UniProtKB/TrEMBL annotation:
The keyword Nucleotide-binding applies. This is 6-phosphofructo-2-kinase domain-containing protein. Substrate binds at R181, H182, G183, E184, S185, E186, Y187, N188, R231. Keywords: ATP-binding, Nucleotide-binding. Coiled coil: none annotated. In the C-terminal section; belongs to the phosphoglycerate mutase family. One of its GO terms (molecular function) is fructose-2,6-bisphosphate 2-phosphatase activity. It comes from Cotesia glomerata.
Length: 413
């Protein structure tokens, strides 16, 4: 929870840096109320069964930190970890100022030179009020956001050590990442999931078009990551950049349902198919994986992407949903239904604290593989209800190579 968002709810229009003067009692009280609102929502998030809540705010005084510590630790019984970010590099600070001015809603419509002056005066108020974080009983991590040097104090347990590892992979420098699914595969054409299918004729055309587009962009120091499966490796073949094949980027393992169409899943495993529709995020195929498993599997990839620039990841629908969803701050329940279309380059660029996403569709036709959640997810639903949102597909793997076989389009109604 960002305290600044709660402050804007109480004071929609940002005035000037004067609002952050530590000696202005009324404004200080208003900022304190915003912090307390955010704290209460963090507590509500934790009490509803979640493991971690993040309170994002400038707790620059010992009194501010004491209130947060006592509220969560002594009143509610939670473990609290402070993360202190330090930056004393003038060039990095200036770069950060420019990003804040460009992307922070407080400065929308403000003259850039006036915004820069106002922001520096706002920071000066915080510097004036700042008291060193030297409280001996507070678990904390102090990180230099330029050198990424870290100091840890009283860190214990799995969650806190995981946070320490996560912070070691973060960079404050602007960066751009590129993503693409493999070209259309023969399994995509006939509506089957999983497997290690080869590209269709249209998928091969996309691989050529992708290589032409990426090579023409002259992306400096580009690296390409693919899964171990044939369709991603073939899609990357013509790209002029170092390539690595990463097992963590393999598609979600559908277990006993590997290589089946949705129609076949409904025929052979109707109960499993209904359970999947009821909770697609947590549903695990028999002898296979769930989206939650994918989220855990790609954690090392996310750590690498966070500190990298100009990487192209060629992977699969479920995996890219988890990767892109992470950077776009999607809720876990949103991931299984994110649009990650075939034959599209997806560019994700850092913009201050957030990321901007762009879809670059290449003009190669392909099937649609996105299946929306059906209205009826009960185990006793009819076949028609279960298959209502299945995307259209063909009845042979590559009708463009086999025009004489009389291919037909399979469409649910």
């Amino acid at each position: 929870m960002r305290v600044s968002d709660y402050r804007r709810k109480k004071l929609e229009l940002y005035g000037t840096h004067e609002f952050f003067r530590p000696d202005h009692a009324a404004n200080s009280a208003l900022r304190l109320l915003a912090t307390r609102d955010a704290m209460q929502d963090c507590a509500g998030w934790l009490s509803s069964g979640n493991t971690v809540a993040i309170l994002d705010g400038c707790l620059v005084t010992k009194e501010q930190r004491r209130e947060v510590f006592e509220y969560f630790t002594q009143q509610l019984g939670y473990r609290i970890l402070f993360v202190e970010c330090i930056c004393e590099d003038p060039a990095a600070l200036e770069r950060n100022y420019q990003e804040v001015i460009q992307h922070n809603v407080d400065f929308l419509g403000m003259d850039p030179s006036l915004a820069a002056e106002d922001l520096k005066l706002k920071v000066a108020h915080y510097v004036h009020a700042w008291e060193p974080m030297d409280e001996k009983n507070y678990p904390r991590i102090t990180i230099d956001t330029v050198s990424l040097e870290m100091r840890a104090h009283k860190i214990t347990g799995h969650v806190e050590t995981s946070v320490l590892g996560y912070l070691g992979s973060v960079t404050a420098k602007p960066h751009t990442l590129y993503f693409s699914r493999h070209g259309e595969s023969e399994y995509n054409v006939i509506g089957k999931i999983g497997g290690d299918a080869v590209l269709s004729a249209r998928g091969e055309r996309y691989a050529q078009a992708l290589a032409t587009r990426i090579n023409s962009m002259k992306i400096p120091d580009l690296r390409v990551l693919t899964s171990h499966l044939r369709r991603t490796i073939a899609t990357a073949r013509g790209i002029e950049a170092p390539q690595e094949h990463v097992a963590a980027l393999n598609e979600l393992d559908a277990g006993v349902c590997e290589g089946l169409s949705y129609e076949e899943m409904q025929e052979h495993y109707p109960q499993e198919f209904a359970w999947r529709d009821q909770d697609k995020l947590r549903y695990r195929y028999p002898w296979g994986e769930s989206y939650v498993d994918i989220m855990q599997r790609v954690e090392p990839v996310i750590a690498e992407l966070q500190q990298s620039n100009n990487i192209l990841v060629i992977s699969h629908q479920a995996v890219l949903r988890c990767l892109i969803g992470y950077f776009m701050d999607k809720k876990p329940e949103e991931l299984p239904y994110m649009e990650v279309p075939l034959h599209t380059i997806i560019r994700v660029s850092s913009c201050g604290f957030n990321y901007r996403i762009e879809f670059i569709k290449l003009p190669i036709e392909c099937v649609n593989t996105t299946r929306n959640k059906p209205v009826n997810c009960s185990a006793n639903r009819t076949d028609n209800d279960a298959l209502r949102t299945v995307p259209a597909h063909y009845d042979i793997p590559d009708p463009w190579r086999n025009p004489g076989n009389g291919p037909s389009l399979v469409q649910q109604h």
